[in-house]
Fold ABC transporter permease.
Amino acid sequence: MEPTINYEAELTRAGANVRGRMSRYIFLVKQYPLGALGALIMAVLIFLAIFANVLMPYDPLATHPALSLGKPSLEHWFGSDNLGRDVLSRIILGARISIGVGVSATLLGTLFGIVIGLTGGFTGGTIDLILQRLSEILQAIPSLILAMAMAAVLGPSVFNTILAIAITKTPVMGRVIRANTLALRELPFIEASRAAGMREWRIAIRHVLPNTLAPLIVLTTANLGGAILIEASLSFLGLGIPEPYPSWGKMLSTSAAEYIGTAPWLLIYPGVFISLAVFGSNLLGDALRDMLDPRRRGN
């Protein structure tokens, strides 16, 4: 005999679950309004990056000399540049380039930092000493200067820009992971894992790394804004994303000096979107820090 299902009770339970989730979201928005604003800004920019092909009203690479330096209008909301290309379409595609490079560089730098931090924290001795001295050398150089040097050596391309920015983010990530590894490796559950015969690399991945996720998430989110800003700076200087990719920094570079008086919209819109990306990621990172750090939750 098939069991009877109380559909009314199931619907009531589902409704209670939805209301519970909504109440938690509303609580988080009230508790961290700036963090919610940052999350909203980043969500919109990521949405633009993912669905750029659908949202672009015109071909961002197509030139129309008759529309050169056209002012913002109902047909071209953000105007057109010196080659008659639609600025709004280039801004939307630029979101894919700038956000994609920033996220990729931040994740790659985090991966490098995890490898360096876990290796140095668990092995110690000469290996740890060498890794820390290299990290200190890299950290002593300003991030933008280091990225410029790496980009100049590697050459302008999307992958080289990602790699150059990732290297600037690696030392801080590595030091955070190493500090957490040194604090965790002497705890009883790590000693118990060693006594059970687990290898060091397995202990690091299975037990140490999951316990460093909270500071890692916060630092990764906070570094995203810096990575986007460095990418814009490199592209502005001609060392980052090459043509014809419409990076926000590249858009500023091609119009900053010549058209600042005659077509200010060529500078305003890319600058606003760069500022929004940095502002949103910083707000989100600060909110995540407060949420994940028990010492700050009551503040």
